[in-house]
Amino acid sequence: MARAKEEASGPSARLSDGTLARIVPSAFGGGWELDVDGTPQSHVDLDDPTHLHFEYVARMAAVIDRLRMPGQPLTALHLGAGALTVPRYVETTRPGSRQQVVELEPALWDLVRENLPLPRGASIRMRIGDAREVLRRLPAGLVGAADLVVSDVYSGAQTPAHLTTVEFFTEAVRFLAPDGVLLVNVADGAGLAFARRQVATVRAVLEHVIVLAEVQTLKGRRFGNLVIAASRAALPTEWLPRIMAAGPHPAKVAEGREVDDFARGARVATDVDATPSPKPSASVFDR
User: What is the CA radius of gyration of the chain?
Assistant: First the structure.
């Protein structure tokens, strides 16, 4: 059985901003969690990478499962590493996929690599640096070639402002294939002002957008994660019932007029006026 290596107090690393990253046993269904400054960032089950504990990750996986033919390898670009839950899922369900992962913190990557090893033989390349800076240095051959681009970048419990803007998404979607899909993890609370701006911002770059979330989160009644899925090409309508059925439940997929209404009146975020995602209260992570 695969196991993370343990130290007396658990493996940990001090990050560049002074916060502490730790790998701890998960209290829910086995596996391991990456915790940064008290915020659960990733869940990994080394024995079964298709076991996805966090709801928003399961919603991302439901979209990924619809890309290309089942089991067909993908080309993927992941902005934000965490414990590489999504790259592990892609490798397991789409063997032979080519994946690039961008992570700001070398200490975090070292911690994960040493204690939560990647599947042997996986074609997953790690690049260290700020996501926007690394985008400018990626191989030219990757431009227009990615079936999947995932933006899931957090510093502690917040997405940095410069990774929420129309300029950032314009850079990121250069790497999408004509029918490739961008997935964005957005965390927000009551009123969803930040999430509405993010949807408006992504729609300024990609025409076709759907939003996936837990029902009460999408209504702005509780803090939670919303997943934006967007593409230059129309997202097939037959995806929607399958995504809904995949859960987690209660699930909601907003499309068409619902997305129009959701983003109505929200300003596109730019490098001049963007803000970080809202910081959740400590009680959100109470167990």
Answer: 18
DSSP string spanning 211-248?
EEEEHHHHTTSS-EEEEEEEESSPPPTTHHHHHHHH-S
3-state DSSP helix/strand/coil % of the chain, to nearest 5: 30, 25, 45
Residue that the structure tokens 């993927």 belong to: 76
Determine the Cα–Cα distance for residues 106 and 129; give it in Å rounded to an integer: 8
Q: Is-contact 285 38, C-beta < 8 A?
A: yes
The residues that bridge with 42 in the sheet, in sequence order, are 34
In Å, the largest CA–CA distance within the chain is 54
| Contact yes or no for 152/185 (Cβ under 8 A) | yes
CB 35, CB 24: distance < 8 Å = yes
Q: Is 272 exposed, middle or buried (0-12, 13-18, 19+ CB in 10 A)?
A: exposed
Q: 43 and 58 in contact (C-beta within 8 Å)?
A: no
pLDDT in tens, 88-109: 999 999 999 999 999 999 999 9
Report the alpha-carbon distance of residue 3 to residue 284 in Å, rounded. 28
Classify 76 as helix, strand or coil: strand
244-265 as b/e: b if 16+ CB within 10 A: eebeeeebbbbbeeebeebbee
Q: How far apart are CA 236 and CA 252, in angstroms?
A: 16
| 157 pLDDT higher than 90 | no
